[in-house]
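yo

u said u wanted the structure for the complex thing, so here. seqs first:
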Amino acid sequence: MMWGNVALRIAGLAAILSPTLKGRPLAEAVTLEKLLKLIDDKCTSSMVQDLLREAKKDDRSVLVSGPKDTVINSHLRIALEKGVIKREAVYKLLCGAEENGRQHIFFYKAKSPEVIAKYNDGNEIAKTLFGRDDWKDHHGFPQFHLEPKGAEWSDFRVEPRPNGTEAWTAKLYSGVYRQRFIREEPYGSHGLIAHVFEPSLSREVYVLRWHPQGLLEVRVPRDSSSRQIIEFVGQVWEVVSDAVDPTDFEHLDLHKVCMWLIKNSENDTTYVLGNARMMDEETGSAEFKPPHGEASLDSSPSRKNAVRLYNECHELGVHWLSKGEDGPKNKLKTIIGKIKPHEVLIAGKATSEGVDYVTHRLLQAHEQATAAK
Amino acid sequence: MSPTDFSKLMNKRPQLSDALGKIRGWLEMHSGEPFLDPRRLTRELPGVSPVTITAALTALAIEGALRPAFKVIGPNHVLADGEFESIDAVLKSGPIRDTDEDTFNPRDAEVLQVFLVPQ
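structre next:
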């Protein structure tokens, strides 16, 4: 049974979004404690150490190494207090971390070259989305919301590419009350056990990202409920519906990509396969799992052979190996098709380079799998 | 874990020499394995009794060549990522994820003693 505080209804993003809402400027007093707590939650130790390492070039007294708690609550705090690192740099680090990783990414491809041309004009998309020409000044983007109440636009970035096309990213924060499990405790005198929940203000980040070759990503936070994740995606589409027409796009089916990655894994040292769910011709399925998360799908010869008896894969764990500056800094675990055929789960914290690398590899694999067929 | 660790222990515990030699061979074949799972060794080292394997692993842990820890088997029937220092730590843990990235409570899971290999 459930009891505790009155449950607060989770409002849909679209219902609570006000396009005129302005977030607080960076300079506004955001407590250092909250900022450091968020950094601890969203960033890996190595992300913070990179920032400290950069600052050390100007001030040798900056310390870099140590356990994560020391790196954030001592080294970073001191560097911020001394002014060696500006708060804006920390916000930038946080923004990058919260847009990348621990999220589901849903992929959509443009249906025609006309659609690609339409969405390659980022400024026009933004004007339609925000309903005004001075959208950037009006909203004061980028906005940082430490404790968003309801849904608030955070950013719309247009990134011109050398060939005259444009990539763009729209970012939205949402702060809604969710019931968080606290503890179990005896209830009444009949041996009943109560689960106690308390309302907790979440801080979620939703991202819509356009790639000029005709790929649209919808990034939503992780949740234990698949239904909730699907609702998140629907809400993002609703929020941007003035500017982004869902009928312009179709799902980028990644099932073929899964099979292509399995078949090519022996010739590619940039990734390792994890769990796989294979589908047979009668729509029966078989699941293959290595003995633990660090082992490869191909670690056992019998498992390796058995997986390849199938022609279709509907869910595949892919661990992208460290690639330095041009990709994941550390091994990045992903699951393709966990919820939908056009979706990827980025399991851990990641950098923008890491997630972009995965997107690029999936798109490339999709092209090759389609061409091979 | 160096060959010296094994050699020293094989001299010190001759009755475990055969099992230790086979564990050393297994580790050489599986370099990069982060831990030793007694269930797996029992299957993959035929001719060595589970009791002897456990004794050999325990001896290596006592010598400091391996670090004992606990892992839990997730609802998807394989070992979840991460390890626990003690059974008590398992019981006190909040929800974790299995290798399918689904959440579960370790308290409800089967617990397994493993031996971490220093990397």
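The CA atoms of residues 110 and 249 of chain A lie 5 Å apart. The radius of gyration of chain A is 22 Å.
cya
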